[in-house]
Amino acid sequence: MSKVIIIGAGGVGTVVAYKCAQNPEVFSEIVLASRTLSKCQAIVDKIGAKNMTADTVDADSVEQLVALLRRHKPDMVINVALPYQDLTIMDACLECGVSYLDTANYEPRDVAHFEYSWQWAYREKFEKAGLTAILGCGFDPGVSGVFTAYAAKHYFSEMEYLDIVDCNAGDHGKAFATNFNPEINIREITQNGRYYQNGKWVTTGPLEIHRTLTYPNIGGRESYLLYHEELESLVKNYSSIKRARFWMTFGQEYLTHLRVIQDIGMARIDEIDYNGTKIVPLQFLKAVLPNPQDLGENYRGETSIGCRISGLDKDGKHLTYYVYNNCSHEEAYRETGMQAVSYTTGVPAMIGAMMYLKGLWKKPGVYNVEEFDPDPFMEQLAVQGLPWHEVLNLDLEMD
Ligand code: NDP
To answer: Ligand 1 pocket test: which of 5, 31, 35 has the largest number of ligand atoms within 8 Å of its C-beta?
Structure first.
């Protein structure tokens, strides 16, 4: 019998709440909390599970978080609020003796900078407290790391080249919208690109490198090299990797809007004075863009996210390996009222919590997902709505 608190009631939080409610034998009590109680209550009412309640917290305040955790005494916090809140939630977990899981690395508000150092610095504190912190347990980061760990465990003696490929071939019918929190999304993709090669990080201009990649059941899509946070932990945990890159698809229309948003200063994350009020342009833009949670209804098509890996197999022979999941926006919407990007993030977050609560991913300290046994997680992915497929000795298109 285990109790969890989900913090964050956006697109991802909604999916996590649905999926926890579907697994009452693991999640015997569920609390959904965010800044806005009415949003949490509406989700709880819609799901209609007897073991789920709503609460409210400002997760920027350790004091409020501690009060929330003392009120409910959960076994784990599933943090699907924004990356700004990671450290305050980790602090509160330490103070109250609660384990922790998130889906995105900590980011300071005033600079878009992606690295795990801030959270890895908590390792000793979690170890000493006998608590587990699982970092980056969405799809990417998350399943991308579990896929890599699965490849290392079952197929490779040395993984040499890793490409994480993320395609959204869906159409929501809007001129411009982001699939998850617009502020976080635009901060991420307007940064310089970066990839790992022969022990060094190579920096590129934003979206400078691109190529057409072929995705299963979808076909060719223009894919752009981005920096993505899981690259940092994967090259550290698999020292045989010579090159690691991350690719994401964008349509021309999306990129044109993005360029205009940047050119006119709406992607700025510093404060400006507007008629005596301080505003951050990107936060204002978020307020006028479509809410990612409302995209689901008319979303058609599917996502395809996977890992393309080459290297030496267990017998020392050359091997190429592609493991991926395709997820339909329509099916995700039918099940949870959310589109596939929220779905593919929320399902793995629930599974990560399940792994911890079943004692399979329980070890004191702060870990990235690839540091745990991938097998039980992969088993659950297939059961919980994200079936995966693997192809060996395919042309990976990844020279
Ligand atoms: P949304 O913007 O839809 O939702 C964010 C939620 O967090 C809202 O409910 C909001 O509350 C809540 N929140 C924000 N600030 C606070 C605060 N100070 N205290 C309490 N609650 C707060 O985001 P998404 O659901 O799209 O994304 C959630 C997370 O998932 C993000 O961190 C994102 O980076 C991550 N993500 C990870 C992916 C992966 O594959 N690893 C992919 C996609 C997203 P309120 O509504 O009350 O304002």
So the answer is: 35
